[in-house]
Amino acid sequence: MERVVESIEVPCCFAENGCTQKIAYFNKKKYKKACRHGPCFCPEPGCGFSGPAATLPDHFTDCHKWPNTAFKYFAQFGLRLQPGPHVLRAQDGTVFLMNVVAAEPLGHAISLVCVRPEATDSPFGCSVVFSCFTGHHQISTLAVVRCSSLVDGLPKDGFCVVPKASGGTHVVLQTTIDTELVYDVED
């Protein structure tokens, strides 16, 4: 009887979002937490959009006109400091949101979140390098980028503060996002 129960397979509860996996019935709850097709949410106030993380970049760009940048892990890329969310798309399809908010009287606070259906352990880190004026050079590092479905909106805390620039200087955030490398080890 135990083998019969273990052999029962059911479709993923996120089949309508594109998941084609068949899961052993007894693993249904565990798989639901790990499925990348689970819902993520638009954090824009008043917007009720939800869907798989892979659908969010187009939604953010088309509906809210948020800037969108593709990047490669471990390769530095530049982002102009501008208030509001910025969509970052990794080459593997992972979606991040960098948000810049005013932090008066200091300047701007920067937060970063990896958009995933479940708040899982994150394999991602980030460093940001910038200069606000001649002689200034600052590096901020986020050892572990938080993962979120954005059901509670954008993060309220920042990992980096960019001081007010003198003379209207345009600050460029030289950003690097990294991920843990996983190797198959043969015995």
How large a portion of the residues is in β-strands, by DSSP E? 35-45%
> What is the CATH C-level name of the largest domain?
Mainly Beta
* The CATH architecture of the largest domain: Sandwich
Summed up, the helix count is: 3
- How many E strands? 14
CATH topology-level name of the largest domain:
Apoptosis, Tumor Necrosis Factor Receptor Associated Protein 2, Chain A
Number of domains in the coordinates?
Answer: 2
Q: What general form does the structure show?
A: elongated
Arithmetic mean of pLDDT: 84
Unreliable segments of 5+ consecutive residues: none
Please estimate the helix content.
10-25%
Distance between the termini: 36 Å
Rg, rounded, reads 20 Å
What would you say this structure looks like, in words?
The chain is mainly beta and 187 residues long. The chain folds into 2 domains: 33 residues, no CATH class; 140 residues, Apoptosis, Tumor Necrosis Factor Receptor Associated Protein 2, Chain A. Strands 5, 7, 8, 9, 12 and 13 form a 6-stranded mixed sheet that branches.
State the gist of this model.
Pfam families: Sina_ZnF. This protein has 187 residues and is mainly beta. Helix content is 12%, strand content 37%.
Question: How is the secondary structure organized here?
Answer:
Layout lengths: L1 H6 L1 E3 L10 E3 L3 H7 L5 E2 L8 E2 L4 H9 L3 E4 L5 E4 L3 E7 L4 E9 L3 E9 L8 E7 L7 E5 L3 E3 L11 E4 L8 E8 L8
Parallel strand pairs: 5-7, 9-12
Antiparallel strand pairs: 1-2, 3-4, 6-14, 7-8, 8-9, 9-13, 10-11, 10-14
Keywords: Metal-binding, Zinc, Zinc-finger
Protein name: SIAH-type domain-containing protein
Pfam families: Sina_ZnF (PF21361)
